[in-house]
Amino acid sequence: MKNNLLDENSTYSGEHRLKPVINVCRYSQDLLDIRCDVDMDYVGSIKDFQGVVWVHVRGLSCSETVSGLCSVFGVDTLAEQDILNVSHPSKIEENEKYNVVISKIFLKDADVQVSIVQGNAFVLTFSEVEHVGIFDDVVEGIRNNVFKIRSRQTDYLLTVMLNGIIANHLAEINRIDALMDDLESQLLSSDNDKSLGARIQNLRREYLRVKQTVLPLKEQYQKLLRSDSLLIHKANKVFFNDVGDHILNVNQKIEICRETLASLVDLYIANNDLRMNDIMKRLTVVSTVFIPLTFLAGVWGMNFSNMPELEWRWGYPFAIGVMCVIGLTVFLLLRSRKWK
Predict the structure, then answer these.
(1) Which of 90, 133, 292, 304 is the Cys-Cys partner for 216 at CB 3.0 to 4.6 Å?
(2) Per-residue pLDDT at 254
């Protein structure tokens, strides 16, 4: 890992090689203008629009596009590097001129990073992939002017996007919780599935993935909520409080999943111990039955010349009979005591 404080260049660190596409949505109380696949010249021409400008970039493979967009809106190099570094931990950072949110979105086939930069009159969003559901929903909300969104400032738009991110986190942790419940039912049943241990480990990895994404947001969001930033207006505090409640809900779910996961591990170990005890009990029963028989076989197998049974005509059938009687007696005795 190189020292970014000694490097002014910004490079995309992900694997998605989607060509950047810039979509712009600008709106005010009386105007709505949505345009797709615009160039940087158009972005520069509307940056002073008297309303809210939302610029969404799909695809980060071209760092020059991200750098140019950040330069137009006065976003510094460190924030730009964080946007392009897809392995960056989740964070909510407050600056004088803008707020930065970096988090992961859990999709069916991958986890992708999304970044939000909220200024006084603009919101910049960045995603690695083409379609991110939370941003599609926001576009529809603006188009339909839900909660009079076109009359509100950029901080309300930020809460809408944050709420979408947290809703995605909640859906993922609920999915993991449902898988844990199914696994718990299998562990409590008599099904001896040898893959249960591997499935618990997979669930543990998925749980840690969500935890690492969600936990940093809790404390940092509270700092943002309590700040005196001019970018957060008093009229919209109620919406920030609602998002904070959702973040707390997700964190409570994570704690529940942590306890459930620990219980699953304990239950799996207990089941293995029970199976081992059952195997040892069976081996003990077999050993107990055959120990006296082994003793008799050893005595009669010594072939001393003065052993009276050596010359006896019925010696062999007698020995076999005695062994069978002793073995059966020990077996019935253990069975009558219920193998205890």
Answers:
(1) 90
(2) 92
